[in-house]
Amino acid sequence: MFNSHRYKPLIYLNLKVLFRRTQPHMFCTSQSHSLTVSYLINNLGFTPQSALNASKRHRFKTPHKADLIIAFFKTHGFSHSQIASIVAKLPKILSANPERILPKFQFLASKGASTDDIVLLATRNPRFLHSSLKNNIIPTYGMMKTFFQSDQKTLRCIASFPALFMEHRLVKNVKLLADAGVSNSAIHHLCRTRVSVLYSSDLRKLVDEVKELGFDPSSVKFAIALLAKKTIRKSLWDAKVDILKSWGWSKETTSQAFWRNPLCMLSSKDKINEVMKLWVNQLGWDPLALAKFPWLFGYNLERRIIPRAFVLQYLLSRGLRNKNDNLSTPFYVSEELFFNKFVECFTEERSQLRKIYYEKKGCS
Question: Which residues are within 8 A (CB) of 364 and not within 5 positions of it... i.e. 6 or more apart?
Answer without folding.
Answer: 358
